[in-house]
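Troubleshooting log. The previous structure file for this entry was overwritten by mistake, so regenerating from the original sequence record. Sequence copied from the archived sheet and checked twice against the printout by T.R.
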Amino acid sequence: MDLSVIDWSDIGVATWETLVMTGVSLFFAILLGLPLGILLFVTARRQLLEQGFVYAVLSFVVNVLRSVPFLILLIVMIPVTVILIGTSLGVEGAIPPLVVGTAPFFARLVENVLREVDRGVIEACQAMGIRTWRIIFGALLPEALPGLIAAVTVTAITLMSYAAMSGVIGGGGLGDLAIRFGYQRFQTEVMVITVALLVVLVQIIQYSGDRLVLYFTRK
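Regenerated output below.
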């Protein structure tokens, strides 16, 4: 493998674009997915704000969005992305479908994490007459913090792979570089380097998430 043919400045720019896409999309996925996941939990059967109809509607929307393959979602959302951002290409054009693709996924993870919290914590708070919103933010979320960090870690790794897929429609980043040079121009070296970088980035995210989970579990 001849590494001299690789433009390392392009590799650097593509890596930075991938990190930006992942970071910005993760922020908005958490911003939308966390409250949605909390709503799914508290409106479920035998929970704090049991509302069967509300839960059914929210669950249906989440399931529909999660069932759409991301590559199809990228294409379907092109008109919406153009309206919101002004373009469907590059880093900016990839962010809306990344958020829509992962926010429901994160919401479902949040719901599952909250279900794992000891029911006795909620019952003890209710027995003391604590208001629902204080139970959620003062007891439920702190108890679930390690699990929530693990959910964020899984979502970040999923976003990394989705960001690479967005290269199919010119989304920028390592995926776009791999397709344009590694696949279309048969530069195997570029393909190998981009895959190796994605593996390294995923390992860093997973290691950091695991360390944070361990830290907050001990506390």
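The chain has a mean pLDDT of 86. Archived copy saved in two places this time.
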